[in-house]
Amino acid sequence: MDERKLVRLAQDGSEEAFASLVRAYQARVYSMALNFTRNREVADDLAQEVFLKTYLALPKFRFHSEFGTWLYRIAVNHIKDYLRRKGRAKEVPLDDVREIANAGEEETLVREKERSAEARRGLVLKVLQALPEKYRVILTLRDIQGMPYDQIASVLKISPGTVDSRLHRARKMLRLKLGPYLTPEGGYDAV
Amino acid sequence: MRCKKAEQWINRRVDDRLDRARTAALEKHLAACSGCRRTAQEVRSLVALLRRDTDVEPAPGFLARLQPRLREERALVPLLVWERWCLRAVPVFLSLVLVLVGLVALGPSETTTLTQSETLLLENRIPLTETQRLFDTAKSEDRNMMLIFASLEAPAARRLP
Q: CATH number for the domain including A7?
């Protein structure tokens, strides 16, 4: 069934229609929460709370944007609130980064080569979590979730130009912290 | 091209947001600038590491765990659907009120002023009989007094324009 129709039915109180919307978006919302928190249980709780909030706010949804965009906005704001409450936005000193990187290197020497990329990814995500909130949010939405620019602009209520400049700055910050660990195995000669 | 501009374009190129002409200019710059080449490699590497092409599914029974919570919320907010209907009804109600007000304001106005005879008829009194009763009064003093009182009452019952 057409999503718009499902939303209208859910607004009129149809449990089945809302369940269909949850099924359609649960993986996306859960992944978003997981990318921000890196904790499956917390991500599950957050995703559930996001859908509860969405359900309660549904009568106020006026189709000014796509339902998905509106839902992601609720999700991003809810996750940001959680992270603020938990005080996750602490700076990770560069020494810590080096330690994590070394641990990753040791592991890659011992284990399979495939584990290397995952270890490096873990390191990148760890450093990403220490970035200021607005940069962490934009990197998560764009580089991890792969969300299009215009949707990010709509979710965060900022202009596409701001998305562009903020993303540029965020990647630069991350590169400056991780640069030495990115280049050797980057494997990309051409842009 | 300056390296600062090249760095901006590298980011856009990674996201496939750089047109052909600029891509060509960037390639030319990268061929000559080892610093920007390194930046390009780092950005590519970073984005490749971060990107997750598929979403991760939550633990099984996500919806089953959510539904009791939804019912709980629904019990706490029983007017949720009702509120929505009320919100829809507000403009309908307002437009009905406007239509009624308009009908009352623009409709024909009828003044229902009765004549003196009509008033007497309505009160089940026959004017001639009333007058005759005045003249039939035996005592002249009484008759005069009744005529005076009748004349005083008359202006109140006069036909209005």
A: 1.10.1740.10
0.80 surpassed by pTM? no
Nearest to B13 among A15, A146, A191 (CB): A191
Question: What is the complex's ipTM, to 2 decimals?
Answer: 0.73
Tell the residue number behind the tokens 């890196």, with chain if given: A38
Q: From the centroid of its chain, how far is CA A154? A: 15
Output the CA angle B103-B109-B114, nearest 5 degrees: 145
CA A25, CA B29: separation in Å to the nearest integer?
Answer: 43
Map tokens 């598929």 to a residue.
Answer: B54
The beta-carbon neighbor of B49 closest among A19, A121, A183 is A121
Let me know if residue A145 belongs to a domain: yes
Q: From CA A133, how far away is CA A119, in angstroms rounded?
A: 23
Per-residue pLDDT tens digits for B59-78: 999 999 999 988 888 777 65
Rounded Cα gap, residues B153 and B144, in angstroms: 14
Q: Which domain holds residue A113?
A: 94-182
- Chain B CB contacts of A17 under 8 Å are none
Same domain for A81 and A104, yes or no, is no
Residues B87-108: tens digit of each pLDDT: 778 888 888 999 988 888 877 6
In sequence order, which residues have a C-beta less than 8 Å from that of residue A143 and are 6 or more positions away? A171, B46, B47, B50, B51
Q: Kindly state whether residues A99 and A175 are assigned to the same domain.
A: yes
Pick from B60, B73, B47, B56: nearest CA to A33: B56
How many Å separate Cα A110 from the centre of its chain?
A: 31
